[in-house]
Amino acid sequence: MIKTEHLTKRYGALTAVDDVTFQVGPGEVLGFLGPNGAGKTTAMRMLAGFVTPTSGSGSICGHDIGSDTLAAKTALGYLPEGAPSYGEMTVRSFLDFIADLRGLAGERRRARLDHVIEHLQLGGVLDQTIETLSKGFRRRVGLAQAIVHDPPVLILDEPTDGLDPNQKHEVRTLINDMARDKIIVISTHILEEVDAVCTRAIIIARGRIVADDSPAGLAARSRYHNAVSMQLEDPSQLGAVRAAVAALPAVAELEVSERDARLTALPRAGTTILPALTELAARQGLRLKELHLESGRLDEVFRTITA
Amino acid sequence: MRNVGIIMRRELASYFATPLAYVFILIFLVLANALTFYLGGFFERGQADLEPFFTFHPWLYLFLIPAVSMKLWAEERKSGSIELLMTQPVTLWQAVTAKYLAAWLFTALALALTFPLWITVNYLGKPDNGAILAAYLGSLLLAGGFLAIGSCMSALTRSQVVAFILGVVACFVFLLAGFPLVLDLFRSWAPQALTDAIASLSFLTHFQSIEKGVIDVRDLLYFAMLIAFFLFATGIALELHKAD
After folding, report:
1. Burial letters B57-75, b for 16+ CB under 10 A, else e
2. Secondary structure of chain A: what % helix, strand, coil (to 5)?
3. Both ends of chain A: CA-CA distance in Å?
């Protein structure tokens, strides 16, 4: 369990994190979202014991981050922003160093090291120094460092930043695999990541929590929630269809793109318009290239909330 | 204690991961010997002792020790690895002590490599080996004092160059605290007691007695307290600035 209560950090006149209170339980993957400079990293650093809160408190698995710091750090695996490490060390000696600090020994140490090397595909670069590795590999070394002691709680600051799509996919699979029995907090500003791995998302802006919901719940706040988008095969029908759709009582707003003959109908709050539109299409004998129901657009919600 | 050992070993290995360590040791040995033979007049004196060798150590250390200590914390802060280190289950004091001890062990190694000189002097005559041992100890303590100051300066900045310059200046002040160059700065306005206190902080006066083979508890205590103070200051500086 991760808990924070009124967690606040001020730097002079600047309040980086402002009265942040939340809880994360086992099995949850919490996505920390927010624009750059919103306070995500500072909040995570406080939980990781690197930055001391100005006021408020937090705990990791019941260990207070202020008074029981070592126990809190022991229960935590942490990937700092940018995955810093010691460039002159080889991957092997770096992981050995972390395993030593984490108190791993004997058979378990070997098994854990083998596990992270295999899962993060570090086998081929074990004897390379970290400074010679690509960004993707460095990030994976950082992740390996964070999970080598199999901690119950993981805090990962931008775990997929700078990775290519394949590597992103691998890291997300890894997070999903670990999600069952761990508490995971990741920060990101990639919204697709929220859908891909998170069970819950907290959006922070200017240091404050402005939304705390499931990804589906957040999407439902979008104007596009339950909107229907259709693309016509024959652009010449656009004018007639446009008038007919706009006349439907449940349609609140209509967006038309003439370039690709696409209509997007936004429903009035709490209504569904898909049946009415399919019926209309059938009645007018429209040939459709595409018809789909939107669940909501996270980027639009994100912009509305944090602007 | 275990953590101190782990961090110290990593740190010590990092010195040897780059040519820096070998360059440093080479320069130290060349300069130490050159000063002994040319400026110190090792042969001309006709005495079987190592005084011309140890006499120059404070001046040698003045420039070489800040070069060893400058990377201690400045580099960790610059690369961000300090965040990685401080979020492992270690305390700040373990990390400060471990990194300091690694730097000290490294200089001890460089100092130990001057042993051919000791063999030479024993081959040429019958020196007082007890006094030589005491002088080695004094030199090691002096290096320790300089390193502690350097560690603190390194914790104040993210730039190794700035850490080096701050280190040289601070070490210079401590080295010459008992001399008019430094004391005159204070004499005009500070009370006599303060001026005397500053004079008693001088590295040189404490080093010179040990160098002659006299191990006084007060001198040992002086170095121990100085080192403890600057390591404490290192910790405070880190606590305040580590996340900047």
Report:
1. bbebbbebbbbbbbbbbbb
2. 40, 30, 35
3. 31
Assembly ipTM: 0.89
Question: Which tens digits make up the pLDDT trace of A69-95?
Answer: 999 999 999 999 989 999 999 999 999
Give me the residue from B6, B17, B242 closest to A101, CB to CB. Answer: B6
Angstrom distance (rounded) from CA A274 to CA A39: 40
Q: Is the Cα torsion angle B208, B211, B216, B219 positive or negative in sign?
A: positive
Stretch (H or E) spanning A64: strand A63-64
Q: Which residues in chain A show pLDDT less than 70?
A: none
- Which chain B residues contact residue A89 at CB under 8 A? 10, 13-14, 17
Using a cut of 0.95, tell me whether the model's pTM lies above it.
Answer: no
Contact B14 A86 (CB under 8 A): yes
Contact criterion met (CB below 8 Å) for B103 and B42: no
Q: What is the dihedral of CA A286, A289, A293, A295, to 10 degrees?
A: -150
CA-CA distance, A94 to B53, in Å (whole number)? 40
| Contact across the interface for B91 and A70, Cβ inside 8 Å | yes
Between CA A216 and CA A263 the distance in angstroms is: 24
Are A50 and B86 in contact (CB < 8 Å)?
A: yes
Out of B10, B17, B79, name the one closest to residue A97 (CB). B10
Contact B105, B22 (CB under 8 A): no
Best of A10, A11, A101, A149 to disrupt the B interface (most B CBs within 10 Å) is A101
Residue corresponding to tokens 């802006």: A205
